[in-house]
TrEMBL record, chain A:
<feature type="domain" description="ABC transmembrane type-1">
    <location>
        <begin position="88"/>
        <end position="280"/>
    </location>
</feature>
<feature type="transmembrane region" description="Helical">
    <location>
        <begin position="263"/>
        <end position="285"/>
    </location>
</feature>
<feature type="transmembrane region" description="Helical">
    <location>
        <begin position="200"/>
        <end position="221"/>
    </location>
</feature>
<dbReference type="GO" id="GO:0005886">
    <property type="term" value="C:plasma membrane"/>
</dbReference>
<feature type="transmembrane region" description="Helical">
    <location>
        <begin position="123"/>
        <end position="144"/>
    </location>
</feature>
<feature type="transmembrane region" description="Helical">
    <location>
        <begin position="156"/>
        <end position="179"/>
    </location>
</feature>
<dbReference type="InterPro" id="IPR035906">
    <property type="entry name" value="MetI-like_sf"/>
</dbReference>
<keyword id="KW-0813">Transport</keyword>
<keyword id="KW-0812">Transmembrane</keyword>
TrEMBL record, chain B:
<keyword id="KW-0067">ATP-binding</keyword>
<keyword id="KW-0547">Nucleotide-binding</keyword>
<dbReference type="InterPro" id="IPR012340">
    <property type="entry name" value="NA-bd_OB-fold"/>
</dbReference>
<feature type="domain" description="ABC transporter">
    <location>
        <begin position="4"/>
        <end position="234"/>
    </location>
</feature>
<dbReference type="InterPro" id="IPR003439">
    <property type="entry name" value="ABC_transporter-like_ATP-bd"/>
</dbReference>
<dbReference type="InterPro" id="IPR040582">
    <property type="entry name" value="OB_MalK-like"/>
</dbReference>
<dbReference type="GO" id="GO:0008643">
    <property type="term" value="P:carbohydrate transport"/>
</dbReference>
<dbReference type="InterPro" id="IPR003593">
    <property type="entry name" value="AAA+_ATPase"/>
</dbReference>
<protein>
    <submittedName>
        <fullName>Multiple sugar transport system ATP-binding protein</fullName>
    </submittedName>
</protein>
Amino acid sequence: MADPKTLPGASGKRYLLGRLFIWTLLLAAAVLYLGPIYVVLSTSLKDLAEIRAGALLDLPHELNFTAWREAWSSACIGVRCEGLRPYFLNSVIMSVPSVVISTLIGALSGYALSLFRFRGANIIFALMLFGCFIPFQIVILPMAQTLGFLGIANSITGLIVVHTIYGISFTTLFFRNYYVSVPQELVRAATMDGAGFFRIFWHIMLPLSVPIIVVSVIWQFTQVWNEFLFGASFTSGGAQPVTVALNNLINSTTSVKQYNVDMAAALIAAAPTLVVYIIAGRFFVRGLTAGAVKG
Amino acid sequence: MATISIEHASKSFGSTEVLKDISLDVKDGEFLVLLGSSGCGKSTLLNIIAGLEPIADGEIRLDGEVVNDVHPKNRDIAMVFQSYALYPNMTVERNIAFGLEMRRISKAERKAAVREVASMLQIEHLLARKPAQLSGGQRQRVAMGRALVRRPKIFLFDEPLSNLDAKLRGEMRTEIKKLHQTLKATMVYVTHDQIEAMTLADRIAIMKDGIIQQIGTPQEIYSKPANMYVAGFVGAPPMNFVKVDLVKQDDQLGVILPAVLKGEPKDYFLPLPASKQLEPRENTKVILGLRPEMITHNAFAAPNIPQIECDVELLEPTGADTLCLLHLSGHPAKARVSPLFACNPGESMVFSVDMERVCLFDGESEALIG
Amino acid sequence: MSNPQQRKQMSVLDRLQRYLPQLVVGPPFLLIVFFVYGFIAWTGFISLTNSRMLPTFDFQGIQQYVRLLAMDRWNVAFHNLLIFGSLYILFAITIGCVLAVLLDQRIRAEGALRTIYLYPMAISFIVTGTAWKWILNPSLGIESYMQQLGWESFQFDWIVNRDMAIYVVVLAAVWQASGFVMALFLSALRTVMRTLSARLIWMAPAPPASTSASSCRPCDPCFSRLSSFSRTCPLRALTLWWR
């Protein structure tokens, strides 16, 4: 809404009260949203004695990074006591190719579907879009059989394939909707200039696509990194991604519960997507609403 | 040497037929304008010549060779688009050079060609800019440069001036005409603006509903319009149409013009020149087409030119001429008179009617009959 | 010049070029067809057989469904899903909408607040679960903290209570998703206001800037558009998101 000062009847006092009310609500909400991360962070920096004392919301007496070190390199997950590190690396190895490949495929098919409206392009797009809405549970069983058939069951390669395929729907959607706002005359002009399908894509469309590439990469990265079901279903032991390892660590009942290590591990698992979000989050919303061509 | 020849071309999008059996020849070095209102199929025809749209039926030949299946890039045609379609991520220089780049022409040659075109269009100072930093007129020039730099044998223009303001449009019109005279290339130009068409064209093809209504020089189109659509589309203000009776008086064929004088209906018999040869249609209704300049004040008119006296409802001074809105019963009509002789609105005035140049149309088919 | 009657043939490359868009879309499309539609059909088919660890083709009709519906676990899960689904959607949308409207009041720190509300979306639900499990832990979490502060009777042990645990899941899920809903509503509100003000400018050539806001009174066309927006609010937000 517009500036309340200009609204009829907005006297100074009522205006101030209104502002106070809005700010109270907004700040209360902010506290609620920040609360859990604060608790997790402060717990991860406390030692076990301090945690058992029960002062959940208090700041740690001293900064103690032992739990972080342990979560990263020596905590026991199943029978292996190497911390989250190998699983974290698994997740990196898994998400980078999935993100890059699915974004590239989405860009190409979005480009073909929006700027070359061949017969049936809209139907194909609608059918592909449906892939955005499937609950993954429904494909677990056939996927497990297929991965076994392809010989990539229980491997990071298998997860890369799975994430790439189920990312295509989203990336195609992003790019198609972005390129729809590109005037068709641009493609015609480039065709007259002698550029073919791929050269138009490479020389003209890709340079225009930075905002939507950012959207696609952020979206795919958070999806793939945070995914749990496929990781838990298709991998075991050393091939697991970090989310599965975190879950195993927290639910392990082998030793004394080390809450500070659990919390540090949770933060380590969440760190990459949080960093991406904090750095590039505003480009995400901006890119989604941006039109492609100005001028 | 570049001729275009289209034979029996048809095209439909879904169930709408946008081109119906079009045949058209463009001579070498000719400037042909495709004129029509939006949706008449003129842009589709242009895209078919360019190769951007496949043709459903018929043949298209360039220099006598059938090119139906030839890719646009191999047709040696350049095109200027309505939205200019400049590549937003590239500088002006690269925009112009892109076609050469795609044809793997060396960097040095590209640079030289761009310089030459840029100086011709006076855009050298803009070469380093991006399209977003240019004004509409400058973008238009860059778009022209992109077409020129390849020295194609055929140029196509798709309403290139319709996004410019009136003043700039006039300037660019002159430049395009000059360009055509310098390059002597074959050009096909699509527009809905009849003034652009009249000023630029060697020949005009007027289209409506996917059919070419008439092809001819601007003068032919203006003075001998094939039908009422063409007659009404070309000329500003448009031709006046009056439904009249074709009768014989004193052994001379003529029409009865129903005018209004001092509020009372008054019919005038206007004899037709013998050259019209409309005797078979005696005693039928026809449509008389009168351009405003055919009805004018009678100050210097020869005595044998028929005259009418008629009420004038209002005046539209345009500077050089004044347009008088005549009171003909049932048909408002405009006359073009010198401001020196215009009467006051509401008064009546004597006009002479140039019956040698009038057009007569069939009341049913709307085709020209004399 | 060659014989004018002879048709210039398209080169193989040109022919290929013409079908490139289809050729490029083809493989990803087929992947989706196989891995989405095919797998759904596959799962559907297996559900009609008596497969155990390995799939068999022993067709049994809807017998597995009958068995499933008779299972106690199914009933519990279904009941929980109903509770979770309805409460989650209700609260996420309500809170998201309220936050969006509040944030849309020309708040100075809007960017920072938006980031705070939205960050849970970036986190894996495993992490979210870990955090909330810890906070709601009765012996060391928020319950014991409040009791230590002197509120002896404070009790919040839903997480260990079989009947209440599902509501805790709702709590964590709403915490995670409501910021995202807020972002959707906010962008929808902004888009509507932008088209609205563009329309206002278009209708009245030069409205003084200060009155453009106060001109939105009942029975103005813009007001009716706003109210129609609020009726279709959730739908609009989604369509704007997917565009």
